[in-house]
Design a protein that fits this description.
By secondary structure, the chain is of the alpha+beta class. The protein is built from 17 helices and 12 strands.
Length: about 475
């Protein structure tokens, strides 16, 4: 059971956005620097808030939840919001949008030919998911993964988003920084580069190594990845949290002084510490220096109307979404209208690991999902979806029976192919079993087929295949758009 006093929760969510704004404004002037810095605080004028995509994009995701409801928000929906309302095309943002315009759905859109898939664009925009699911990291990481997969596939950028979202959501109920780090690490592959960099930072801190030497070790360990990548920058956030030892100013300045993506590291430090301690944790002189305004740089406000203009307005609207998120995700034992904050989660170890995280991280990058109500399908390419004339492309589809207890599915498959193309090794019918509601084994509701697409003599730059899925007695026709690049 997790109970929040409504006023206390609202204060901590406001502190999250205020801390985000402070760190983004403080760090932006130094973004991209490769040397150790020596900043002391703001270089901006009082009341001047610098625009930051870290916060901008989350305003769009919040409005998607307002307009459609959390149940409908997934990577496909967020992808369409990217194309409709987010203007920048730099790095992974532009690659993800370009791939979607070609017809590649997430996470394939973020995986295909994306040299920036290990970068920082996703973990910097996770607070919205944590704030709408306070104390519920498994809910937050589900949305963070859907979000990140659009422009990072299933690479380090997405693992970083899962890690940070877990830390932020858990920070509403866990105050110990080391336990928060453990919770975050438990949600991502132990051998991924984000985990490696975070554990390196923790190991250096435990050994009493100076922060500058720790920073140098992180840089050296990530040298093969290059600059502006998620593993090292997430580690700089952890460095700030550990070496800052609970001091807001010290923590943020340390993270920014590590250099690299300084607006992102400063902003994330601010949001995490704001969640942990509320506005009382944020130095008064810094909050007064910045003010309450939100200045956007990435949102096309000519198309998306009603974007929050202040941290206060953003907080009010997030608070209204929390009960909707609780209901949509069937979150039991979460009360946001209690007399006082209290929970029975002990040291927070009960928030670690879990099947949700394992399922998310097991998803292949060269894949995408389709939902047909009675059945869902995950389309998986065994390699990059590119072919030459006459070449075969191995594929798999995993079908899932989504209406438990209503009987098995007998699916009929019909392929619509370009001239000269063929499908090898695929039957025209698929049997998908079912289980009683009391049976939890997912394999009782799934069926997997393997086959190959064989290209014809003519291969275009972009080749579209349609797989039609029907089932007798059901009016819904499932159409799976499969795009293969030449």
């Amino acid at each position: 059971m997790i109970k929040f006093n409504n006023a206390s929760l609202k204060d901590r969510i406001y502190a999250c956005w205020l801390g985000k704004n402070i760190g983004g404004t403080m760090g932006t002037p130094y973004e991209g620097g490769r040397e150790v810095l020596d900043i002391q605080g703001f270089v901006t004028k009082p009341g001047e808030v610098l625009p930051n995509d870290d916060l901008d994009l989350q305003l769009v995701w919040m409005m998607a939840c307002e307009q459609l409801g959390p149940n409908r928000v997934n990577s496909h929906v967020l992808g369409e919001y990217w194309l409709g309302y987010v203007s920048p095309n730099w790095n992974e943002y532009g690659i993800g949008k370009s791939n979607m315009r070609l017809g590649l759905l997430p996470p394939l859109s973020g995986q295909y030919h994306n040299e920036w898939k290990d970068s920082n664009g996703a973990w910097i925009r996770t607070e919205i998911w944590a704030c709408m699911a306070p104390g519920c990291p498994d809910v937050a990481i589900k949305y963070a993964c859907e979000d990140a997969s659009v422009d990072h596939g299933m690479a380090e950028g997405t693992y970083a988003a899962i890690f940070v979202a877990a830390v932020e959501a858990a920070a509403f109920v866990v105050k110990d920084v080391r336990r928060l780090i453990e919770i975050g690490l438990s949600k991502i592959p132990a051998n991924c580069r984000v985990a490696r960099s975070v554990k390196l930072c923790c190991d250096c801190y435990d050994k009493g190594i100076d922060w500058k030497e720790t920073r140098a070790k992180i840089v050296e360990d990530s040298a093969d990845l290059g600059w502006f990548e998620a593993p090292a920058n997430v580690a700089y956030v952890i460095l700030g949290l550990l070496y800052g030892e609970g001091d807001f100013k010290k923590s943020m300045i340390l993270a920014i002084n590590c250099g690299d993506d300084t607006d992102c590291t400063g902003a994330t430090i601010g949001s995490i510490m704001g969640i942990m301690g509320g506005t009382a944790f944020i130095p008064k002189d810094w909050s007064e220096h910045l003010g309450d305004n939100i200045i956007t740089v990435s949102v096309d406000k000519g198309c998306l109307y009603g974007v929050p203009k202040t941290c206060t307005e953003l907080t009010e609207r997030v608070m209204k979404l929390i009960p909707i998120m609780i209901h949509a995700n069937k979150i039991g034992g979460l009360d946001i209208y209690a007399e006082k904050d209290e929970n029975d989660i002990g040291d927070g170890s009960c928030l670690m690991g879990g099947g949700v995280a394992a399922d998310l991280c097991a998803r292949p990058g060269y894949s995408f999902d389709m939902d047909f109500v009675f059945t869902s399908a995950r389309i998986i390419f065994d390699r990059e979806p590119t072919v030459t004339p006459g070449e075969e492309l191995p594929m798999r589809i995993v079908f899932k029976n989504q209406l438990s207890g209503t009987g098995p599915r007998h699916l009929q498959l019909r392929w619509i192919l370009p001239d000269g193309w063929s499908v090898e090794g695929c039957k025209n019918e698929v049997y998908v079993p079912h289980s009683r509601p009391s049976i939890a084994n997912a394999s009782h509701t799934r069926a997997e087929i393997s086959f190959s697409l064989r290209a014809g003599e003519k291969v275009d730059f972009r080749n579209r295949i349609i797989l039609e899925i029907t089932m007798e007695g059901h009016p819904t026709v499932g159409l799976i758009p499969i795009v293969v690049m030449g």
